Structures are given as structure tokens and as C-alpha cells.
Amino acid sequence: MEETTSTSAAGNGIVVVGASMGGMRAAEAARKAGYQGPITVIGDEPHMPYNRPPLSKEALAGRPDPAALIFRVPRAAQDVNWRLGTTVTAADLTARTVTLDTGEVLPWEGLVVATGLRPRRLPLPGPAAGRYVIRTLADAQELHEQLEPGRRLVVIGAGFIGCELAATARKLGVSVDVVAPEPVPMQRPLGDLLGQALQQRHEAAGVRFHLGVLPVAFGGSAEDPDAVGSVSLSDGTVLPADLVVEAVGCATNVEWLEGNGLDLSDGVRCDNHLRVEGRPEVVACGDVAKFPNLLFDDIPRRVEHWTMVTDTAKRAGSTLGRHLAGNGEAEDVFAPVPSFWSDQYDIRIQSFGAVGLGTEDIRVLEGSPDTDVVVGYHRDGELVGVVMVGFGGKHAQYRTLISTVGQGAVPVRPTAPEPV
Amino acid sequence: MKFTVDMKKCQDHGQCVYSAPTLFALDDLGKLTFREETDGLYESEEVDESLRDDLEEAADVCPMQAIEVLD
Ligand SMILES: Cc1cc2nc3c(=O)[nH]c(=O)nc-3n(C[C@H](O)[C@H](O)[C@H](O)COP(=O)(O)OP(=O)(O)OC[C@H]3O[C@@H](n4cnc5c(N)ncnc54)[C@H](O)[C@@H]3O)c2cc1C
Ligand code: SF4
After folding, report:
1. Among B24, B65, B68, B71, the residue to mutate for chain A (most A Cβ within 10 A)
2. Are the beta carbons of B63 and A310 separated by less than 8 Å?
3. Nearest-5° angle of CA A166, CA A170, CA A174?
4. Which CATH topology does B2-70 take?
5. How far apart are the CA of A114 and the centre of ligand 2, in A?
């Protein structure tokens, strides 16, 4: 491998910040696009990139095992230089450097922003011990130790992660209360109809919901006043708790990019090639990237879906690799089909498309919300997303339907495929 | 080049089918068709080199990371 300390920009290599799925796939894609210089991936976690979705599901039910979760390093990324356990504290996009927590300054000719998200914490009074979040392998390992039968868990937040966690904890015989301000669990991503149907399945499994209320304070436990023993809610209820998990959404890891004049209000703003605010030598991917998906429209949005990480990382890595290798830019339009799944008990929830754009107009397309169901989400009368509970045999059919969204209604989409 | 699918890990997500439709398929119940052959480790026939990109893509996007490409 070449030295990464030469003074001219060329030869300084690509620096990828964030050593998770997005960072690894972007490095791979840059290589596949013909980039031959050195690539360094820097990540603050101690592990090689690993798979996160199991952390609230099957991996949490057993003891989370790094060996089972770490990805195979793809062939094209075998010569990548990994700097794990290292935090990037700053970047200078003009001087083209990043600064590490070791004080080192690394120059680069291309930068990939792949720093993802971190869980938000509730700024509430009370003890700090006994409060958990779930994003990393370390989080899941710590939490798993606490999930013993008969213990009382209070989950704050009724989004996908909160609900998956509730399901996993029930399977382990843990007593579960879920607290959330919205009137229906998973209301924001799914809407009322499916949210209510899933709430009933959780209740049948013994989960108690406290909806339309907020947690206002944590109380200490009788044995140890410095550890959580209860959660007080805005309606006056006090829930006893042996542990609390805060699953109240995430914040973007962008602080290290401050001082470069970027709009960092919600991730990093990219174009359809995943270039950050038009810079050809800086790209972003994964949960932190806010980009226009031309399948729907040209409004940049962030997407927190596992499959989208690979889609954006391949696009971003290829954009950067091509640019630095002098191969110009891709001519195709980036219009990936969003896909999301969630497992709760034995229920597989699978979505395709931009469900969030169609929650004003929700229709049952097949089946019934009490059993297996396909629900359609519409924008201006057009189907933009589907969510399926069960109906495994029909996934492909509905995915195809979503891949033809637009059909000329969206002027930016150049070639409308045949209708199905 | 061949590939294996660990059917113990596979949860019939079907993402592989969208990436490499000539190599993977779901049956009418939405189960990966290899499930009919084994519930252990499925090993494929020799795959043509021209399908390498599709196959690698399928392995990348499998949510359970059940697919392994053997060179
Ligand atoms: C518990 C859980 C369950 C999920 N379940 C599903 C699911 O069922 N279906 C689904 O579609 N999606 C699911 N997701 C979402 C999916 O896992 C994410 O979309 C994906 O992990 C995002 O990948 P990423 O590479 O963009 O970011 P991340 O995986 O967040 O990686 C970013 C990495 O960068 C590191 N980093 C951050 N800042 C710095 C810095 N300054 N210096 C160095 N390193 C830094 C972080 O520590 C992290 O390792 C789930 C997520 C979680 C947490
Ligand atoms: S993508 Fe993975 S989990 Fe899904 S069917 Fe294919 S092998 Fe199975």
C-alpha cells in the first residue's frame, strides 16, 4: 500500500469515515469503479462492520455474538486499510484533511461520509444507571444481560425498534410496558390502521401500552437510589421498572463536519449522485445521507432502511471512484426501490416504496388487518408504498408495482417502465 | 464460481431474488426454492462468471447474510 502522507492531493487516497455497512460498501464500490489509490476506513467502534438489524431481534434473544454478525469483507475491499476504535473529530473540506482523536491529521483526495446515527437520549431528571439504548453491538450485549425473566422493562418509544425490542423481551419472559406520545404504535411509519392491528398482537403477547403520554422523570430504586426503579408519566402514572430502554429516534453523526459551511440540520445534503452539496470529491451514504430518490420526486430525504445503505453506498463509492479515476460521472438516474422489514414475534412486516409519503391515504389492498394484510399508501391518488403483513408469496409482485411509481407523473424520471 | 445459502440463517427475505433473478427464486408461499432441497447448507451448481456481479450483489443485500460466494 502507498504512503498516505504525500503533499499533493492525488495519492492521498480516499478516507471513509464510519466503519459500518455503508462505509465498507462505499469502499468496495470505489474500487469497483476503477479507483486504485489507497482507501482508509476509520470507525470509532472496535469491531469490523457488522449487521445491526438482528440487534433488536434474534441476536438480542440469545447472547449477541460478534462472529455471527460481522460481515464478510468483499473481495474488492480486501486491500482497504481499517482504523478501528478511532474517532474523526474534525474535517476540513478545503484543505482536504480529517483530524483524528489521536491528534493525527490525515490528508485525502476523496472523502466518504458514512457516520450514520446515534440514539437520542431523553433529557429527564433522575438516575442514569439502568437506562439503555440500542444501536451498537456493545449496547445489545449490555442490554441482553438485563433481559431476565420476570424483570420489568419500560420501553420509551413505540417505533419499529421499540416494538421489536418489546417483542424480543416478551419472548424472554420479561414484563414489558411501552410508553409513547403518539396514540398508536408505529403511527409515523405505518399509519393508524396497521399500527392498531400490530398493537393488538403485542397486547395479546402481554405488552402494556401507555400511549398519548410522555415520560417526565425517572425515580431511583429502593435498593439503589442511583439506579432507575420507576418511570413517571405525564398523566401521573408511575411505572415500576428494573430497566428502561430509550428508543426515541436518532440524531445524525455530523458534528465532525461542522465549520465547513454545510447545512447539517438533518444529515448531509446530497445530489442524485450522492455528492455532498455538489462537491465532486465528497460523497455520503447510508442513514446520514439526505438525497433525492427520483423514483418519487427530487426532494432530498434521509432514509433509515438497511437495504438503502447498500444502494446509496454503491452509488456514492462509484461516483467518487469514477471521479478520482478520471472516468466521469454515471449517466443513469438513481431511483432505488426502498425496502424495509421488521420482525415482531412471528410476524414479518415488509414494506416497499415510500410509505411515509402516503400516510394520508391508506387503503387495504388484500386481506384483513386482523390477519395477513397488504396495505397501500397513496400520494395524490397514486400508490407510493405498500406494507405487507404475511403474504410472503406476493412480495415480488408488489415490489414490481412500486418500482413503476411515477410512470411519467414525475417529470424527472426519464424512462418509465411498462406498467404491470 | 459457486455459492452456498445457509438455510438455517435464511429467513426468506427475497432480496437475493431482486438482485440475481436467474439464480434465486421464491415459491408461491414466498419461501426460497432451495428450501425444498435442504434446510441445512444449499450448494449451487457452477455459476457462469458473467453472473458474478449479480451474485455478489445478492450476497451483499441478504439481510441475514446467508449467501456465500465461493471462488
Ligand atoms: C437495533 C436496530 C434494528 C434495525 N432493524 C432494521 C430492520 O429490521 N430493517 C431495516 O431495514 N433497517 C433496520 N435498522 C436500520 C439499519 O441497521 C441502518 O439503516 C444501518 O445500520 C445504517 O448503516 P450506516 O452504515 O449508514 O450507519 P451506521 O451503521 O450507523 O454506521 C455508522 C458508523 O460510523 C461510526 N461513527 C460515527 N461517527 C464517527 C466518527 N466521528 N468517527 C468515526 N466513526 C464514527 C459509528 O459508530 C458507526 O459504527 C436497524 C437499526 C438498528 C440500530
Ligand atoms: S436474501 Fe437472504 S434471507 Fe432472503 S431469501 Fe435470499 S438468502 Fe434468504
Report:
1. B65
2. no
3. 100
4. Alpha-Beta Plaits (3.30.70)
5. 25
The residue type found at A77 is A
First-to-last CA distance in chain A?
A: 50
- Residues on B contacting A at a C-beta cutoff of 8 Å: 11-15, 17-18, 26-31, 56, 59-61, 63, 65, 68
- Cα–ligand 2 centroid distance for A72 (angstroms): 16
For residue A9, the tally of other CB atoms under 10 A from its CB is: 14
Query: Which amino acid does the sequence have at A85?
Result: G
Distance between CA atoms of residues A401 and A310, nearest Å: 22
* pLDDT tens-digit map of B1-40: 999 999 999 988 889 998 999 999 999 888 999 999 999 9
- Reference A189, options A23, A34, A357, A40; nearest CA is A357
Q: Which residues pair with A243 in a beta bridge?
A: A153
Pair A242, A152: CB distance under 8 Å: yes
* Residue extents of the structural domains in chain B: 2-70
Residues 6+ apart with CB under 8 A from B65: A51, A71, A72, B9, B59
A91-113 per-position pLDDT tens digit: 999 999 999 999 999 999 999 99
Residue A80 pLDDT: 97
**Cβ contact (<8 Å) for B63 and A395?**
no
Nearest-angstrom CA–CA distance, B21 and B25: 6
Chain B: closest CA distance from residue A50 (Å): 10
**Domains along the sequence of chain A with CATH:** 13-118+251-325 (3.50.50.60), 121-248 (3.50.50.60), 346-419 (3.30.390.30)
CA–CA min distance B32, chain A (Å)? 10
Does the global pTM surpass 0.80?
A: yes
Report yes or no: A345 at the B interface, CB cutoff 8 Å.
no
Prediction ipTM score: 0.88
At A139-196, the pLDDT tens digits run 999 999 999 999 999 999 999 999 999 999 999 999 999 999 999 999 988 999 999 9
Residue ranges in A33-184 assigned as alpha helix (H): 58-61, 66-69, 137-146, 160-171
